[in-house]
Amino acid sequence: MEGLLMLLKRFAYPCRLSDMIPRFGRSVPEISLILAEVTDHIYRTNGHLLQDLNQPWLEPQQLESFARAIHQRGAALSNCWGFVDGTVRPICRPGEHQRIMYNGHKRVHGIKFQSVVAPNGLIANLYGPVEGKRHDAGMLRMSGLLDQLQQFSHRPAGQPLCIYGDPAYPLRIHLQAPYKAAHLTQDQEAFNSSMSNVRSAVEWVFGDILSYFAFLDFKKNLKIGLSPIGTMYSVCGLLRNAITCFYGSTTSDYFDLQPPTIQEYFQI
């Protein structure tokens, strides 16, 4: 428990390890070791919850209810149960491989993650980190997400369900994206608009992670080779899901869906 409290304190806001001594009564080396051990333990024992779509709360009956809730909020698609997007997390400029880590779109050195968000406010899948220069479509291919969707994304009767992404993603049976033509018809524009309105939910989740765990938003502390940046972001994603299980979120309120209990999510 002490280790978890240290971790939450560390991630809640940027601070020096020495600033934690008065609260926890341990030396800087002890605090550093405990933080590393707890971070690794959480990721090792629960990281699969962000990697595998074969979870009890993602059974076909639940996916169908997600699709229904999204459609009721005005989405044109009636078979869309979640949203996929990539995010760039700025890091301290690395001493080596700067071009690989540089993201030209955001104009920062960073690492990228791909996230699938369900309308109950939970992160269903989180892939990363990958190099900042990597394109979203390339990250999708590397993640193997399409294979998982083909296996698990369907209604109880077997009809396929999909997730929705931005124009960077290819069109597949289980992955839909906006119309991209230069001149869209009125119906196509209406489709894009309706899906864009509900898709903003995925951006709320990215914002929630940084709101709860501001340490991740302080790039001077995020140094490749010195800190397990990717593991820290994944652990914060798990902790953010735990908070949603307890208190709900803006996303779950928007779609009027209840997240699973903490016991159901962590299967304890």
Q: Can you give the mean pLDDT?
A: 93
Radius of gyration: 19 Å
Which structural class fits the helix and strand makeup? Answer: alpha/beta
Contiguous low-pLDDT stretches (5 residues minimum) are none
Question: What is the 3D form?
Answer: globular
Task: State which percent range the strand residues make up.
Answer: 5-15%
Number of helices: 12
Task: Give the biggest sheet.
Answer: 6 strands, mixed
- Level of helix content? 40-55%
Fold and architecture overview:
This protein is α/β, with parallel strands linked by helices and 268 residues long. 46% of the residues lie in helices and 14% in strands. The protein is built from twelve helices and six strands. The chain has helices spanning 2-12, 21-24, 28-46, 60-72, 98-101, 136-143, 145-152, 186-199, 201-212, 229-247, 250-255, 262-266, and strands spanning 80-90, 102-103, 108-117, 123-131, 162-164, 175-176. Strands 1, 2, 3, 4, 5 and 6 form a six-stranded mixed sheet that branches. A hairpin with a 4-residue loop joins strand 2 (102-103) and strand 3. Helix 1 packs across helix 3 and helix 3 (28-46) packs across helix 10 (229-247). GO terms for molecular function: metal ion binding. Its cofactor is a divalent metal cation. Residues 84-241 form the DDE Tnp4 domain. Keywords: Metal-binding.
